[in-house]
């Protein structure tokens, strides 16, 4: 039997607990959180830090939210979980109603998953089963997607993440091989690049006959590089999928629930997807929950196929506790003036990060909704950066060459200014970039 040999909490954590994208033998430092409220994380040593990450983009209402606390307490007195196979319950039904109202017309068939990555797995399986039911089972097996994308860490989603610059190169020989095309040129306000569009049309012409779907993060590519592109490309994606008999899948796990300034990008005119994946902010950061939402046509086609069912069923599918909190989170969001909050955050990020754009170490500064990105020429020393941030009273988690902010919507202007000032001052202190 394994024995506990570490004598302190920190030592135990360092020896036994594996953190995301971290070595277990030489881990990055971690900071123990004792409690959280509003946009503030209180560390076990008494220090407080302003959270600029919304706990990886999900805690849009901040922490210790009375309405969400009450929803969890009320549901706990009834049941925390019950299997969804053969049973149903009010929280799932109420959440389903909310999601049907939130989605564009025609997207109203809902599969409740247990994480964002699983919702993408389900979407990919839906697409495969759909094409199989249409008689294309042996001819179509690939997915088309864009370089620079990130869709999750489980096997299916990994296979449609960026194969070169992404986080999963190690698994190249293990993952299914799909077809990738360059992401659209950057800039949300830019006109369509006709040369790019012609290349994309040729890409579809070459690969679509063997594909089941085209999967993209609309407008904002998240963990693959924080790349923003024009929504004008979305109707073109829709047109090409229709022309070649492919399903269009939007991964809105990062973009959903107002983060870009729109509630969901799936509402873009003439660009409605066939399947959309949502997660992260769905429960306001309280519990893990996601959903894969599709049309009656897709659902009925799958149900009319050889299997007769969608071949997926997580143990914690439709968890009542998570569903109840998700209902409360959606109601809280829609009951607030969230567009004004997101616009205010965008204005503050633009104002306070502007100084970074002039610095030698910086490649680009860009803002979209409640997302601010400072892209450097060289990778960030994560341990040093986070130590610096905590000393300044903020929490920011960079990756690669990207220092970015995606705070809760309830953040104050003063807190945004502190986050941005910390980023700018850190970059100011970096050594000059060596040029060839």
UniProtKB/TrEMBL annotation:
Site positions for Participates in the substrate recognition with KAPA and in a stacking interaction with the adenine ring of SAM? 21
Enumerate the Pfam families for this protein: Aminotran_3
What PROSITE patterns does the annotation carry?
AA_TRANSFER_CLASS_3
Q: Which amino acids does the record list as binding substrate? A: 56, 150, 280, 313, 397
What the entry lists under HAMAP family is as follows: BioA (MF_00834)
UniProt lists the gene as bioA
Catalytic reaction(s) noted: (8S)-8-amino-7-oxononanoate + S-adenosyl-L-methionine = S-adenosyl-4-methylsulfanyl-2-oxobutanoate + (7R,8S)-7,8-diammoniononanoate
In the UniProt record, does the keyword Ligase occur?
no
What cofactor is this protein dependent on? pyridoxal 5'-phosphate
In terms of NCBIfam families, this protein maps to: bioA, PRK05964.1
Pathway, according to UniProt? Cofactor biosynthesis; biotin biosynthesis; 7,8-diaminononanoate from 8-amino-7-oxononanoate (SAM route): step 1/1
Location in the cell: Cytoplasm
CDD domains tied to this protein? OAT_like
Starting at the broadest rank, the lineage of the source organism is: Bacteria, Pseudomonadati, Bacteroidota, Saprospiria, Saprospirales
Which one of the record's GO molecular function terms can you name?
adenosylmethionine-8-amino-7-oxononanoate transaminase activity
- In Swiss-Prot or TrEMBL terms, this protein is called Adenosylmethionine-8-amino-7-oxononanoate aminotransferase
N6-(pyridoxal phosphate)lysine carried by residues: 280
User: Its Enzyme Commission number?
Assistant: 2.6.1.62
Which species does this protein come from? Answer: Neolewinella maritima
């Amino acid at each position: 039997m394994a024995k506990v040999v570490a004598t302190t909490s920190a030592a135990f954590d360092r020896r036994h607990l594996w953190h995301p994208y971290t070595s277990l033998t030489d881990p990055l430092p971690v900071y123990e959180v004792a409690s959280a409220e509003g946009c503030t994380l209180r560390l076990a040593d008494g220090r407080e830090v302003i959270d600029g990450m919304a706990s990886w983009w999900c805690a849009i209402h901040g922490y210790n939210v009375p309405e969400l606390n009450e929803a969890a307490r009320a549901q706990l007195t009834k049941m925390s979980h019950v299997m969804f196979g053969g049973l149903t319950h009010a929280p799932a039904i109420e959440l389903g109603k909310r999601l049907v109202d939130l989605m564009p017309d025609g997207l109203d068939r809902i599969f409740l998953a247990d994480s964002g990555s699983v919702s993408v797995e389900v979407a990919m399986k839906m697409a495969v089963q759909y094409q199989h039911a249409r008689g294309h089972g042996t001819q179509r097996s690939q997915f088309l997607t864009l370089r620079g994308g990130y869709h999750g860490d489980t096997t299916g989603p990994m296979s449609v993440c960026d194969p070169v610059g992404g986080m999963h190169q190690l698994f190249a020989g293990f993952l299914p091989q799909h077809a990738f095309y360059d992401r659209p040129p950057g800039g949300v306000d830019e006109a369509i690049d006709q040369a790019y569009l012609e290349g994309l049309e040729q890409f579809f012409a070459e690969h679509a006959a063997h594909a089941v779907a085209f999967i993209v993060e609309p407008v904002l590519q998240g963990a693959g590089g924080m790349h923003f592109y024009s929504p004008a490309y979305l109707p073109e994606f829709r047109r090409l999928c229709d022309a070649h008999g492919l399903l269009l899948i939007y991964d809105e796990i990062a973009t959903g629930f107002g983060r870009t300034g729109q509630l969901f990008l799936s509402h873009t005119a003439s660009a409605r997807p066939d399947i959309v994946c949502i997660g992260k902010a769905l429960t306001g950061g309280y519990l893990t929950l996601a959903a894969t939402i599709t049309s009656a046509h897709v659902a009925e086609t799958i149900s009319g196929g050889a299997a007769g069912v969608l071949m997926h069923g997580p143990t914690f599918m439709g968890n009542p506790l998570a569903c109840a909190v998700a209902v409360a989170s959606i109601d809280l969001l829609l009951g607030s003036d969230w567009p004004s909050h997101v616009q205010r955050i965008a204005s503050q990020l633009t104002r306070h990060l502007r100084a970074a754009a002039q610095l030698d170490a910086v490649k680009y500064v860009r803002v979209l909704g409640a997302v601010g990105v400072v892209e450097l020429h060289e990778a960030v020393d994560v341990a040093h950066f986070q130590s610096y941030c905590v000393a300044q009273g903020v929490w920011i988690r960079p990756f690669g060459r990207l220092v970015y902010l995606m705070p809760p919507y309830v953040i104050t202007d003063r807190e945004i200014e502190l986050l941005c000032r910390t980023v700018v001052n850190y970059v100011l202190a970096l050594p000059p970039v060596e040029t060839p």
